[in-house]
Design goal:
Distance between the termini: 64 Å
Radius of gyration: 26 Å
Largest sheet: 3 strands, antiparallel
Structural class: mainly alpha
Number of helices: 5
Helix content: 55-70%
Number of strands: 5
């Protein structure tokens, strides 16, 4: 979405949600409409909790197997966004949120966006960072050298050099 369309989206979405409330309220009545909104809010919380824990388990499994959890992180972000959309009052956000809870829909969104995502992760063993050789690809990682050795003041000594030959003098 282009940056210039974002303000228009945030201005038009509440108007569309209000129109949705009016249309649904005219068809089924006030109390059933309010109960439907409350039910989708509760559903969002339950689904967010259940699928969130499932996503955390998949994320943990991927990292313990030494794989980059890029896809799991994106799916997790979509689950969180879907839960937030269901928690917001409104039928349009509820429909989008329910669709994002469906794994096939999340997979389709991942396929659309994975070519634009580069996965970079810190290595747990051996230091440095790892990155995929091609953005969004499932290929092997290549190691980038980013070693850092941290020393306290008592763990090193400063030596003075003696002229151009750089021989240390203690």
């Amino acid at each position: 979405m282009r940056l210039s369309l974002v303000p228009a989206f945030f201005l038009l979405l509440p108007l569309a949600e209000i129109a949705g409330f009016i249309l649904v309220g005219q068809k089924i009545g006030l109390w059933p409409t309010l109960l439907l909104i409350l039910a989708t809010t509760v559903l969002g919380g339950v689904l967010l909790r259940a699928q969130g824990f499932s996503m955390l388990a998949r994320l943990n499994r991927a990292t313990t197997q030494g794989q980059a959890p890029g896809e799991e992180l994106v799916h997790g972000a979509m689950i969180v966004l879907a839960g937030i959309l269901l928690l917001l009052p409104g039928f349009i956000t509820d429909i989008i949120g329910i669709l994002m809870f469906i794994p096939a829909v999340r997979e389709k969104l991942w396929q659309m966006f994975k070519s634009r995502i580069t996965v970079v992760s810190a290595s747990r063993f051996g230091g440095g960072f790892q990155t995929r050789s091609k953005p969004g690809a499932g290929g092997p990682f290549r190691q980038m050298d980013a070693s850092v050795i941290e020393l306290d003041e008592d763990e090193y000594t400063h030596t003075k050099t003696d002229g151009p030959d750089q021989n240390p003098k203690r």
